[in-house]
Q: What sequence folds into this?
């Protein structure tokens, strides 16, 4: 028999709390949360065992019910400052100019009408190391919203990072998509699906790609239901950016949902990219170092943007140990040796393949560990 608590029912937060932005939506239905917590008008008691999945689920419902923000979330409405930040990406990421131009057109139109920004899901297609993930993160910064990166190559289950895991499982928890929406004050966060084509599920019949059929389709995403929370959420304003080296492993039904931009690096763009990466690394040191001459940048153009973003901090260390506030070619050579970029490999840029091969070793610190496969409760 279910035990009921005699505690007085708490007053819930208002579902119409004002938002800093007049343009927004109700992320979830307060009445749905109310019904789940108070089936007969009395709040059901929860177990003191925090490991109990149902108790954790009810605790999350209570958090939604008592959230001072209510269910209201603002939407991303472009303004002149945002437009300027987006346009500035051409200076640091010129290889993504077609993507930036597409976003600028959409954002300018939304600003003119005072409407929220809505972008169709897109995929940045290109060789490893051209800066796809870097650009996606810089774009999220330009939007000034919360962001989440999901590495598909680490997914081995049916996609619990997207959809959560139901309370019938011992390791149950909300998915990352629902957590991001609930934690954010804006219903337009950016989600980056890194290497979308590289999912490797243990059971091929339960690929994480399947859940994207609903999330990437705006009409279905209006009532996205996380398996743990079991309450419909408005996920139709999420800005989806995927990266890929090759689209052929993806089902046609997913490719059809994505606007594909093929990214290539031109030699004329490399100098601007090198300067940008140096400046960003230098900011992290407090601006200690003078920018090198273009001659030094040109000597290391065979390196990919990914390699250079890791190389500069190491080169700074060598220069600092010598008591210098400028980087020399010798510092670069020593940094290349630390990263084993002088050992040959696959990381050189295709159109510069005539130059000495420069390999990039994967950085294990960038890997994320997914939860173990769920174990059903006995």
A:
């Amino acid at each position: 028999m279910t035990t009921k608590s005699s505690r007085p029912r708490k007053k819930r937060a208002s579902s119409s709390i004002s938002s800093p932005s007049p343009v927004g939506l109700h992320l979830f239905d307060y009445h749905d949360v109310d019904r789940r917590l108070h089936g007969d008008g009395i709040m059901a008691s929860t177990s003191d065992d925090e490991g109990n999945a149902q108790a954790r689920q009810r605790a999350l419902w209570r958090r939604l019910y008592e959230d001072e923000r209510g269910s209201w979330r603002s939407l991303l409405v472009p303004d002149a400052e945002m437009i300027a930040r987006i346009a500035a990406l051409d200076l640091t990421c010129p290889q993504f100019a077609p993507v930036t131009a597409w976003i600028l057109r959409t954002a300018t139109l939304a600003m003119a009408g005072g409407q929220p920004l809505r972008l169709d899901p897109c995929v940045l297609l290109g060789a490893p190391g051209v800066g796809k993930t870097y650009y996606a993160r810089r774009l999220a910064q330009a939007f000034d919203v919360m962001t989440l990166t999901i590495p598909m190559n680490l997914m081995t289950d049916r996609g619990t990072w997207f959809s959560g895991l139901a309370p019938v499982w011992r390791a149950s928890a909300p998915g990352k998509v629902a957590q991001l929406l609930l934690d954010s004050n804006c219903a337009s966060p950016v989600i980056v699906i890194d290497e979308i084509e590289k999912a490797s599920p243990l059971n091929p019949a339960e690929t994480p790609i399947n859940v994207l059929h609903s999330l990437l389709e705006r009409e279905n995403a209006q009532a996205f239901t996380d398996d743990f929370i079991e309450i419909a959420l408005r996920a139709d304003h999420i800005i989806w950016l995927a990266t890929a080296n090759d689209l052929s492993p993806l089902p046609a039904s997913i490719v059809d949902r994505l606007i594909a931009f093929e990214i290539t690096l031109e030699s004329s763009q490399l100098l601007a990219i090198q300067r940008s990466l140096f400046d960003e690394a230098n900011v992290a040191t407090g601006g200690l170092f003078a920018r090198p001459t273009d001659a030094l940048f040109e000597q290391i153009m065979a390196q990919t943007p990914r390699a250079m973003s890791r190389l500069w901090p190491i080169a700074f260390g060598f220069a600092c140990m010598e008591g210098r506030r400028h980087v020399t070619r010798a510092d670069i050579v020593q940094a290349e040796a630390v990263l084993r970029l002088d050992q040959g490999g696959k990381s050189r840029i295709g159109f510069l393949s005539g130059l000495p091969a420069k390999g990039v070793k994967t950085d294990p610190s960038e890997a994320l560990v997914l939860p173990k496969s769920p174990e059903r409760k006995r």
